[in-house]
């Protein structure tokens, strides 16, 4: 447990700058949505598109922000390319798109349980369910398994080996601490938007976070 905490803290320190930038960007966009009329007007077509297209819009949003955008960045950065790069981008695009549908359902459930408004009480309830139940017991375990599989070039060997080492202790717990530091403030901003915009805001925040981390990785790889 102590090692998991230390690994998580090291990850937080390594990604402190993009983490803070994500917090600030998410908070600024949420505040602007309610205080600057042109921001809400600019997002209204996106909101209508999501309402009209449902799961198709949710899939497309997360597939684009979680798979296509990082994939284009990796394709442009030779120092970050890995084996079977195209296949991995396709797999991640489909994976993220599927999660878009899941999150559309999850956000709708949260809205029915707690309401669809920006009050602090509503935001805190949604954040608590999201970060202390949904993320540690559903999102992180499944995502960790997927990315272990991806990192092993599609072979189940890496997944099996890590599970034998103690999957929760060596993978889930270290990622959980860094995930909380990044996403507790960020999902508060996501939940501040109307439910029809939440999947889009999650996708935008996820893409921003991924690109910032990849940019750091590119600089490290060049040195």
Describe the overall structure.
This protein has 223 residues and is mainly alpha-helical. Helix content is 89%, strand content 0%. The chain is built from 8 helices and no strands. Helix 2 (16-35) runs parallel beside helix 7 and helix 2 runs antiparallel to helix 8 (195-222). The two termini are 33 Å apart.
In short:
89% of the residues lie in helices and 0% in strands. The protein has 223 residues and is mainly alpha-helical.
Number of helices: 8
Query: How many distinct beta strands?
Result: 0
Q: What is the SS-derived class?
A: mainly alpha
**SS strand fraction:** under 5%
How would you state the average pLDDT, rounded?
82
Largest sheet: none
User: What is the helix fraction of residues, given as a range?
Assistant: over 70%
Radius of gyration (Å): 18 Å
String of helices and strands: HHHHHHHH
Q: How does the overall form come out from the CA principal axes? A: globular
Distance N to C terminus: 33 Å
Low-confidence stretches: 216-223
Q: Can you tag this structure with a few keywords?
A:
mainly alpha; 8 helices; disordered C terminus
Please outline the helices and strands.
Elements: H1 2-14, H2 16-35, H3 37-53, H4 55-76, H5 85-114, H6 120-151, H7 157-192, H8 195-222
């Amino acid at each position: 447990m102590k090692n998991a905490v230390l690994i998580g803290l090291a990850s937080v320190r390594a990604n402190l700058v993009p983490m803070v930038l994500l917090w600030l960007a998410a908070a600024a966009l949420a505040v602007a949505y309610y205080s600057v009329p042109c921001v809400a007007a600019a997002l209204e077509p996106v909101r209508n598109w999501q309402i009209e297209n449902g799961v198709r819009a949710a899939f497309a949003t997360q597939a684009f922000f979680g798979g296509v955008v990082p994939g284009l960045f990796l394709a442009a950065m030779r120092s970050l390319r890995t084996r079977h790069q195209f296949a991995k981008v396709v797999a991640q695009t489909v994976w993220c798109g599927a999660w878009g549908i899941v999150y559309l359902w999850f956000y709708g459930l949260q809205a029915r349980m707690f309401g669809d408004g920006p009050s602090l009480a509503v935001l805190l309830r949604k954040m608590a369910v999201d970060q202390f139940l949904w993320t540690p017991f559903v999102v992180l375990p499944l995502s960790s398994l997927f990315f272990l599989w991806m990192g092993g070039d599609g072979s189940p060997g890496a997944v099996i080996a890590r599970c034998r080492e103690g999957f929760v202790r060596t993978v889930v717990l270290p990622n959980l601490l860094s995930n909380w530091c990044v996403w507790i403030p960020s999902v508060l901003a996501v939940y501040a938007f109307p439910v029809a915009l939440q999947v889009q805001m999650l996708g935008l925040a996820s893409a921003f976070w991924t690109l910032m981390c990849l940019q750091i990785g590119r600089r490290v790889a060049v040195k």
